[in-house]
Specification:
The protein has 233 residues and is α/β, with parallel strands linked by helices. It has 10 helices and 8 strands.
Length: 233
């Protein structure tokens, strides 16, 4: 299933910049920016949103993310003018624009359907760091526990200079998603981009990968090799 993503913002720069950022981590996902008014000013455009949905017509579903309340109103108006079949393909997310778009794009890149992409975007709403999740802290007790029935695990050191920032985190998630296994990294879900980014692991940090399921050992081996490679940086 192909899920396209439409980014609606009052600012041309914010919409295009968000799309550009998401493309760095999800190159195969159709992403369209609908920013600003028709004359390039600050505001939203019914025509730009309608054109963006049309541009994503080849996708099986479209997820829309907006920056402010009036962007949702303009989007709702645009959706009211679609026929029933086209309208059923479009899903509007309430997630934060930038974080939600990045998380949604990575979920779409890994083959997620509309429901999975919406869920990934929604997870951005709770992605703020508390004291224990900041660099040098520890994960909450319920997240730090090993995977039940762990059948494979390994610990490796981060070697890339920038640590586990957005692009390497996205590569990690995409690799984890290919395996039929439940995988955790330093106590958090290895298939959640925002959870991994919230760890804020720097160069030299220890990365512990644990997995269970049919592909557990292969998942651990693949992810460890990815970390040791420095994610190609």
């Amino acid at each position: 299933m192909t899920v396209g993503i439409l980014v609606v913002s009052h600012s041309v720069a914010i919409a295009t910049g968000t799309v550009e950022l998401a493309r760095q981590m999800a190159a195969d996902v159709p992403l369209v920016a609908a920013g600003g008014t028709d004359d390039g000013g600050i505001g939203t455009s019914f025509e730009a949103i309608t054109d963006g949905i049309e541009e994503l017509a080849a996708a099986d579903a479209v997820v829309v993310l907006c920056d402010l309340g009036s962007a949702y109103l303009t989007t709702d108006t645009a959706l009211d003018f679609l026929d029933d079949e086209a309208r059923a393909r479009v899903h509007v997310s309430q997630a934060p624009l930038v974080e939600g778009t990045v998380a949604a794009a990575v979920a779409a890149q890994t083959g997620g359907d509309a429901e999975a992409v919406l869920a990934a975007a929604a997870s951005a709403g709770g992605s703020t760091l508390d004291d224990d999740a900041r660099p040098g802290g520890t994960a909450p007790a319920d997240e730090a526990a090993p995977v039940d029935g762990t059948v494979a695990s390994a610990t490796v050191e981060l070697v890339n200079e920038s640590g586990l920032h957005a692009r390497p985190a996205a590569e990690f998630v995409k690799a984890a998603a290919k395996h039929e296994a439940r995988v955790r990294v330093n106590g958090v879900d290895a298939k959640s981009l925002l959870a991994i980014m919230a760890l804020a692991l720097p160069q030299g940090a220890s990365v512990t990968v644990e997995a269970d399921g049919p592909d557990a050992q292969d998942a651990v081996d693949t992810l460890v090799a990815l970390v040791r490679s420095g994610f190609g940086e």
